Amino acid sequence: RRVHGRLTVNGAMLRRKTKRTLVALALVGAGIFFFLQDRAEPHEPPPHVDLTRHETALANHGGEQDGGKSSSSSARPNVDALARIDLPGASPWQLHGFIGRKADGTPAFKYGPAPPASDYARDLMGNGFNARMSDSISLDRNVSDYRDPFCKTVAFDLARLPTAAVVFVFHNEWLSTLLRSVHSVLNRSPPQLLKEIVLVDDGSISEWLKGPLEEYIKLLPKVKLTRLAKRSGLVKARIRGFETATADVVVVLDSHIEVQPGWLEPMLQRIYEEPHAVIMPQIDSIVPETMEPQAGGIGCSLGFLWSLVEHGIADQEAFTKLRKNPADPIGTPTHAGGLFALRRDYFFELGGYDPAWGFWGAENLECSFRIWQCGGRLE
């Protein structure tokens, strides 16, 4: 379950808090924190999750195998989700086929040459990343797969999993970065699972997010746009996203991410097993000056400082020993706020966000505490 971002998820995403790194989202299970011990239970994979290799499924669709014995099981679910779809251009890197194409089949977004090396401090102003470099990169670029090798062997029965809506909230986001986030989710999400992408505009004034954005998303499947009449803040915009979404599960992502292969299925699998689980992905990074994805970013375990911001903490050995394999989830006291998934109905059962919250800051901690106090799990 990796995302680069806060420019990637098993992709990439840009961290606006520090404006130093773009982070990638990866949903990877880990250990559980010490004060959650009474809630932590080791678990075996349910019978419909195949923990053996899936070369057969890949071979049937021209995928590249990475070693190991081929299985003879014909009933094994196809992790790449290609067996049950028939979309022009569908491949392991573009599960929804060709997207963002004009009537003549050519891409509607034209990216230019990479800008020359220059004053990076100037290039990072306004966005926290090199916008000119972003404009020189394909919306459909392949990002590296940083998952643990074991996680790449897990196949999921997609027919059993809940559907997902991905919600992006943005305010004056750079157009190429926003569109690359959307393309990334479409390219690496099984069509059977991804019901919709909801774009929530929190009062943007940038012209490229008016007509140009509206015209472009007409070329994309499953994308809907809703706008707040004036800038109302992150919390109210997210509430609009949850209200607009119709899928079983809502996945909240920052608007400057890229997801890695297999990013969505593990989250939905865990929520299928435990409907009161709220899942935070592993977040890798994107170098803001060069837009290059890299492994490492926000870990799986987050606590908080008394200044009420989340803070990375070490996985506790007492709980990592409970894990049976690298794909098992890791409990965490708090979550990062910008990237998480939970059932839509459970969000409203918890009371949703307090609409009195305004812009970024501390809403993730309040929500984290409520999840644990109300019988849920944060992993």
Attribute tags:
single chain, 379 residues, alpha/beta, 7-stranded antiparallel sheet, 5-stranded mixed sheet, 16 strands
Notes on the structure:
Helix content is 20%, strand content 18%. The strands form four sheets. Strands 1, 2, 3, 4, 9, 11 and 12 form a seven-stranded antiparallel β-sheet that branches. The N and C termini lie close together (12 Å). It has 379 residues and is an alpha/beta fold.
Summed up:
The protein has ten helices and 16 strands. The protein has helices at about 55-60, 120-125, 130-135, 175-185, 210-215, 235-245, 265-275, 315-320, 345-350, 365-375; strands at about 1-5, 5-10, 10-15, 20-25, 165-170, 195-200, 225, 250-255, 255-260, 275-280, 280-285, 295-300, 300-305, 310, 340-345, 375-379. The N and C termini lie close together (about 10 Å).
Sequence stretches where pLDDT stays below 50 over 5 or more residues: 6-84
Task: Give helix and strand order, one letter per element, not per position.
Answer: EEEEHHHEHEHEHEEHEEEEEHEHHE
What gyration radius follows from the Cα positions, in whole Å? 20 Å
The amount of helix comes to 10-25%
Mean pLDDT across the residues is: 77
How many strands appear in the DSSP assignment? 16
- Beta-strand portion reads 15-25%
Topology:
Blueprint: E1 2-5, E2 7-8, E3 12-14, E4 22-26, H1 55-59, H2 120-123, H3 131-134, E5 164-170, H4 175-187, E6 194-201, H5 211-217, E7 223-227, H6 234-244, E8 249-253, E9 257-259, H7 265-273, E10 277-278, E11 282-286, E12 293-298, E13 302-304, E14 310-312, H8 317-320, E15 340-343, H9 344-349, H10 363-373, E16 377-378
Parallel strand pairs: 5-6, 5-8, 6-7, 10-16
Antiparallel strand pairs: 1-4, 1-9, 2-3, 3-4, 4-11, 8-15, 11-12, 13-14
